[in-house]
Amino acid sequence: MKEKASIRLAILTKSPIFRIVAAQCAATLIASGLSVFFDRVVATSALMAGVACIVPGCYTLVVSLRPVSEGDPGLRHVLRGELGKFALTASLFALVFVFVRPLNVFVFFSTFVGLQLCMAAILWWDSRKLLKR
Questions:
Q1: What pTM was computed for the model?
Q2: Reduced 3-state DSSP string for the chain
Q3: What ranges do the domains of the chain cover?
Q4: What is the pLDDT of residues 30-89, one digit of tens each?
Q5: Is-contact 81 59, C-beta < 8 A?
Q6: Cβ 81 vs Cβ 64: under 8 Å
């Protein structure tokens, strides 16, 4: 049983989506942790942007690691993951705007955009490592 868990963990940590979600978690904690010294609303807004970005990323990670049957290209999993990610992101945005008061909208959107750029940076970094091989 422990062998299966260690194999699953190894597969999970090798996924580029895992590295993206881990980097987004770290960036969210750093942004909200540093901003808590300035203003509590700013820290909450940064944290909510992180949640709105990380939770859909985790869903995509779980869907992408599902086993694919032989002969199936896995396109169904990719489509399900991306549509689910879009729906979760839209739902979390709506929940944040309805229930989180007060919210600094500028900080929320700038943190969200920064986390999306974090995803692009991780993909760029991985591509540079592949080119050096």
A1: 0.85
A2: CHHHHHHHHHHHHHCHHHHHHHHHHHHHHHHHHHHCCCCHHHHHHHHHHHHHHHHHHHHHHHHHCCCCCCCCCCHHHHHHHHHHHHHHHHHHHHHHHHHCCCCCHHHHHHHHHHHHHHHHHHHHHHHHHHHCC
A3: 2-131
A4: 999 999 988 999 999 999 999 999 999 999 888 888 777 777 777 787 888 889 999 999
A5: yes
A6: yes
